[in-house]
C-alpha cells in the first residue's frame, strides 16, 4: 500500500513587503537581511484574515487539482474542490497560529467550510516541522483505518500576527502563507521496484531547547489576567544563534538518517525541499553533508519563513512548474520551535 500525493495547492497574501519597505520602518537594511538570511520579501495578510482563510484557499487549490481541474474561473475551481472534499476522510492542519487557541481546532473550521462532512479533523502543533509531522500523522491514520483513503494535510501560518514588529532580530524573518497536499492510500507498492508515495521518514525533538523559540503569553502557564492591558500581543521570542546551531545539526542529521535508513546515496535524490528558515542554514548543512547547494530548492527570497507552510508551498510551486517528475525521489527536511525536527522521502 502506498501513500501518494494526488494534489498540491498554496495560498499567499497579495500584499508583498520588501526588505526596503521594512527598512523604512525599523533599523535594518536590504543588505543585512539578504546577507544574513537570503530573504528578499515576505507576504503579509490583511487584518481580517485568519489561519483558516489561507488554509481554505490552499486546500481548494489542492483539491481542485486532485479533481482534474485545469484552471479557469474561481467558481468552477470551488465547485471541483467541493466535490473532491466529499471524498476526504481526514484533515490534518499544522499551525503555530490557529484562528483561536484551544478549541475549535482550525482543521474543524476548514472541514466545515469545505463541506468535507465525512472527514475527521485535527490540528498539529510542531512549529515549523508541523507539515512533516502532519503528513506522517495523516499517513499513519490512513493506514490504521480500513475504510480511510484520502487525507488533506495543510500547513497554514500567519506569523505576522505573532511577531513583535519592533524586534528587528525576528520580524524580518517571517511571512504568511499556506500550503496543502491531498494524500491518498493506493494499491501501489511502497517498497521495492516501482515504489511510490511516502517511503521513508525521520521524526524527533529536543524539548530541552524549548526556551530558544517561544511564545510566552496566553497559555495556561502565563494566562492573561482580568483587567490587564498589554502593549503588544503574544509574540515569538527567539535566541537566533541557539536556533541556528540546532537547525544546522538537526538538518544534516535528518538528511543522513533518511539516506542511511533507505540505503541510498544523495545522487538517488532528485531534489531536497527544506523548511525555508534561513538560506544560510541550508548552505551550512549542505557543506556539512558535502551535498551541492543546487540539490536544495529555495524560495525563501520571495516568501521568507512561513513556518509549517514553507514545505507545502515549495512542493506546490515545484509541482505546478513541472519540476517534479513521476518517479523522482524528493526529500523534505524541517526543524522548528519546540524544538522538533524531521523529514520524509517521497517518490513523486
Ligand atoms: N537588521 C540589521 N541588523 C540586525 C538585524 C536586522 N534585522 N537583526 C539583528 N541585527 C544586528 C544585531 O543587533 C547585531 O548587532 P551588534 O553586533 O551591533 O550587536 C548583529 O546584527 C548580529 O546579530 P546576530 O543575532 O548575532 O546575527 P546572526 O548573524 O546570528 O543572524 C539570525 C541572526 C539571522 C536570526 C540567525 O541567528 C538565524 O538565522 N538564526 C536562526 C533563526 C531561525 O532559523 N529561526 C527560525 C527557525 S524555527 C522556525 O522556522 C520558526
- The CATH class label of the largest domain is Alpha Beta
- Quaternary class: single chain
Query: End-to-end span in angstroms?
Result: 15 Å
CATH superfamily of the largest domain: Thiolase/Chalcone synthase
Helix count? 11
Based on the structure given, which CATH architecture of the largest domain is correct? 3-Layer(aba) Sandwich
Shape annotation: globular
H/E topology pattern = EEHHEHHEHEHEHEEEEHEHHHEE
> Which blocks of ≥5 consecutive residues have pLDDT under 50?
none
Assign the CATH topology of the largest domain: Peroxisomal Thiolase, Chain A, domain 1
Strand order of the largest sheet: 1-7-6-4-5
Number of domains: 2
Helix proportion? 25-40%
Kindly describe this structure:
With 348 residues, the chain is of the alpha/beta class. The protein has two domains: 185 residues, Peroxisomal Thiolase, Chain A, domain 1; 151 residues, Thiolase/Chalcone synthase (Peroxisomal Thiolase, Chain A, domain 1). Helix content is 34%, strand content 23%. The chain contains eleven helices and 13 strands. The strands form four sheets. The chain has a five-stranded mixed sheet with strand order 1-7-6-4-5, with helices on both faces. A four-stranded mixed sheet has the order 8-13-12-11. A hairpin with a 4-residue loop joins strand 12 and strand 13. Helix 3 packs across helix 4. It is globular and about 55 Å long. The mean pLDDT is 95. The site of acetyl coenzyme *A has 25 residues, from helix 2, helix 7 and helix 8.
Amino acid at each position: 500500500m502506498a501513500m501518494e500525493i494526488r494534489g498540491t495547492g498554496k495560498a499567499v497574501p497579495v500584499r508583498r513587503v520588501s526588505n526596503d519597505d521594512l527598512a523604512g520602518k525599523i533599523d535594518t537594511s536590504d543588505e543585512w537581511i539578504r546577507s544574513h538570511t537570503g530573504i528578499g520579501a515576505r507576504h503579509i495578510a490583511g487584518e481580517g484574515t485568519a489561519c483558516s482563510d489561507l488554509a481554505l484557499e490552499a486546500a481548494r487549490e489542492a483539491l481542485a487539482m486532485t479533481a482534474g481541474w485545469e484552471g479557469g474561473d474561481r467558481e468552477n475551481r470551488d465547485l471541483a474542490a467541493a466535490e473532491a472534499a466529499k471524498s476526504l476522510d481526514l484533515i490534518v492542519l499544522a499551525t503555530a497560529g490557529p484562528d483561536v487557541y484551544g478549541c475549535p481546532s482550525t482543521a474543524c473550521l476548514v472541514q466545515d467550510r469545505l463541506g468535507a462532512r465525512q472527514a475527521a479533523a485535527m490540528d498539529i502543533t510542531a512549529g515549523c516541522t508541523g507539515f512533516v509531522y502532519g503528513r506522517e500523522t495523516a499517513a499513519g491514520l490512513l493506514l490504521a483505518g480500513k475504510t480511510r483513503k484520502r487525507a488533506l494535510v495543510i500547513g497554514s501560518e500567519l506569523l505576522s500576527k505573532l511577531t513583535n514588529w519592533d524586534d528587528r532580530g525576528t520580524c524580518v524573518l517571517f511571512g504568511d502563507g499556506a500550503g496543502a497536499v491531498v494524500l491518498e492510500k493506493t494499491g501501489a507498492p511502497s517498497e521495492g521496484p516501482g515504489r511510490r508515495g511516502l517511503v521513508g521518514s525521520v521524526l524527533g525533538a529536543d524539548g530541552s531547547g524549548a526556551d530558544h523559540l517561544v511564545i510566552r503569553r496566553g497559555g495556561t502557564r502565563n494566562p492573561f489576567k482580568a483587567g490587564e492591558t498589554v502593549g503588544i500581543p503574544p509574540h515569538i521570542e527567539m535566541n537566533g544563534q541557539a536556533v541556528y546551531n540546532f537547525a544546522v545539526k538537526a538538518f544534516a542529521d535528518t538528511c543522513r538518517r533518511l539516506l542511511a535508513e533507505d540505503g541510498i546515496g544523495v545522487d538517488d535524490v532528485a531534489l531536497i525541499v527544506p523548511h525555508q528558515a534561513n538560506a544560510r542554514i541550508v548552505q551550512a548543512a549542505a557543506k556539512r553533508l558535502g551535498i551541492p547547494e543546487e540539490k536544495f530548492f529555495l524560495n525563501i527570497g520571495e516568501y521568507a519563513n512561513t513556518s509549517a507552510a514553507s514545505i507545502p508551498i515549495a512542493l506546490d510551486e515545484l509541482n505546478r512548474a513541472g519540476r517534479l517528475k513521476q518517479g523522482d525521489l524528493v526529500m523534505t527536511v524541517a526543524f522548528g520551535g519546540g524544538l522538533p525536527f524531521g523529514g520524509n522521502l517521497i517518490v513523486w
